[in-house]
Amino acid sequence: MPKLHVKVAPGVGGKIPSSSTDANRGNKIQGTGRTRSTVNRIQMYKTKAHKRDRKGKIIEGAGDLTSRTPEVGAGRIAPNRRWFGNTRVVKQQELSEFRDAVAKVSHDPYSVLLKRRKLPMGLVAETDKNRDGARLQLLETETFEDTFSKKKWRKRPKLGNGDLGELARTADERGQHFETSTADTRLKDHVERDEDRDRCFDKGQSRRIWGELHKVVDSSDVLLQVLDARDPAGTRCEWLESHLKKEAAHKHLVFILNKCDLVPTWVTARWLKVLSKDYPTVALHASVKNSFGKGALITLLRQYKRLHDDKKSISCGLIGYPNVGKSSVINMLKGEKVVNVAPVPGETKVWQYITLFKNVFLVDCPGIVHESHSNSESDSVLKGVVRVESLKDTSPVFVPAVLKRVEDKYITATYGIRDWSDPDDFLTKLAKKTGKLLPKGEPNHDATARKVLHDFIRGRLPWFVTPPDPRETENEEQDTVEATVDQDLSKLRSSKQFDNASDPSLAVSQVSKSESQQTLNPNSDAADLEWDASDEDDLEEIS
Ligand SMILES: Nc1nc2c(ncn2[C@@H]2O[C@H](COP(=O)(O)OP(=O)(O)OP(=O)(O)O)[C@@H](O)[C@H]2O)c(=O)[nH]1
């Protein structure tokens, strides 16, 4: 039988000590993993702060409590992370995996992060702060060893400023930068910059309107940004989107592509594809009697309510450019006229609350235009931001812009005139045809131009901004919907055809479900099933 050689650690009497807290066990014996210094430290913590005799009387230590007893040695208490509340130690790798996972989810418009308060979101947000330069990016510029280990070489923290004078200068510069970037001063600069510009072109930019917008944003859980299907990119407020991402990431943003009855099917379908990459998008024709997309929108709102089950009710704010149809969307959802609608911008003056269901409220907002949009005068008029009646002069720029956007064949189809040489000739011919004449039979160019502008804004003259081709950016398969490129625009105004105008399924994409995530799907049947029984009336109304 082979002899067993046992290597004995230097212990008392040459034996292997049995206790793992015996300092004589030597370094890292037989898988215990405790070094001599660790064992010594643990035993140090065992030293009690004070000793008591059999009767419980303190006889050693705690000199402050019993001044008559001698102070012998100081007791130590082992540190415990439970002192700091509900904490957990995570490794660097775990943290970066968590950051990546949460960043991925929070950038996906179809995933909703629930129970944010239970997740250490600060750890994710920290990276963004770093990016802004608000914090020093220590670990991005130096290695962990150089920064924190025992071998760290840097003795003083990097303050970014050498002396007090430099600090004061930096603070001054930052203060000036802040002032110039606030909305009020931007508006002031804007007016000062362009004093000749008529004030009517600054509609939707006043402090009062922006105050109303912030009230709506603050009080809403879901924000419905209404876009005009004829020019979605031109009526989109990107500033507000980035503001929401930064300041209120927990609020949900949804695009509503309204007035899709005024554009061909393929245009709606393409815009849906383009916009739904950024946010859930629903195509809509906001009309009380003859609507399109109402069911999809209501289902989506229900899903948001389900996500916020902890709340009694949710509020959905309607925001967007003036005259895009925010109030019309509310009337459509309610199925009756509850708020004023007008074919002129600025009809909604203040925010207003409307009850959609007992636990879903709608908030109407006046139309807003962000100063960064830098609309030219003709842009403002053609987007319907400015009331045509308030224009001092109509013909010089606006009518040529209309003639540029609308194809000749549609102008001929609408007005029955053809072969005009220039905008003036066009106005003369139209004035004669419609009987808009001044004394002595002179054609009234001003009145005719106003009529053309009204027709353009209200959708009588068909036009749209061509959407970007999704195939240009990503090699997508041939889309069958696009075979209808040459569809006759005039036919599309009949609502029957527009029942197929857009495929609401384009407005969603599937994502995997997990504990803290849920999928949004406007067409989800499950959402209907889980809806309150008390809402059955609404269901009937939708069907
Ligand atoms: N063809 C068509 N017209 C629409 C649609 N939705 C709204 N409109 C018209 O657009 C005009 C403006 O609608 P409003 O609902 O008052 O627009 P708003 O965004 O509330 O306007 P502000 O009060 O300026 O903010 C009205 O004449 C509506 O009839 C739509 O889906 N199709």
Automatic annotation (TrEMBL):
Keywords in UniProt for this one? GTP-binding, Nucleotide-binding, Nucleus
Q: Would the keyword Nucleotide-binding turn up in this protein's UniProt record?
A: yes
Compartments, record wording: Nucleus, Nucleolus
Q: Molecular function (GO) terms listed?
A: GTP binding
What InterPro entries does UniProt report for this protein, alphabetically? G_CP_dom, GNL2_CP_dom, GTP-bd, GTP-bd_ortho_bundle_sf, NOG2_N_dom, P-loop_NTPase, TRAFAC_YlqF/YawG_RiboMat
Task: Check the record and name the SUPFAM superfamilies matching this protein.
Answer: P-loop containing nucleoside triphosphate hydrolases
- Indicate the secretion signal residues: none
Q: Where is the CP-type G domain?
A: 210-371
Q: What does this protein do?
A: GTPase that associates with pre-60S ribosomal subunits in the nucleolus and is required for their nuclear export and maturation.
Q: What is this protein called?
A: Nucleolar GTP-binding protein 2
**What species is given as this protein's source?**
Rhodosorus marinus
